[in-house]
Amino acid sequence: xxxxxxxxxxxxxxxxxxxxxxxxxxxxxxxxxxxxxxxxxxxxxxxxxxxxxxxxxxxxxxxxxxxxxxxxxxxxxxxxxxxxxxxxxxxxxxxxxxxxxxxxxxxxxxxxxxxxxxxxxxxxxxxxxxxxxxxx
Length: 136
What we know:
two-stranded antiparallel ribbon
């Protein structure tokens, strides 16, 4: 168990402040790994992806590596917010690309009932749903 123990009668439980810091670290790790996976999906290796993400959010790549390994002692103020903003920005770019493809397909006369239009509509809806989920 992480954190210090507090005695409540005959049982030991983590204190509220320690538990919340564990939750914050876990949440930061999840978000950082999601952003790194997005970069890796574009063809970058993990170290390159980490460097790109770190550069965008204003930290050193080693911080992301320590976070992923569970060795980061503290999360700097605003770190999760910057990660979150990066995810939203990337999803908004993906949504804009999907909408652009959809409008181009309409302009070239693709039929509304075609499988390609269904795929494009699905891409737009999926991107928007992801943005809504992340913004929560």
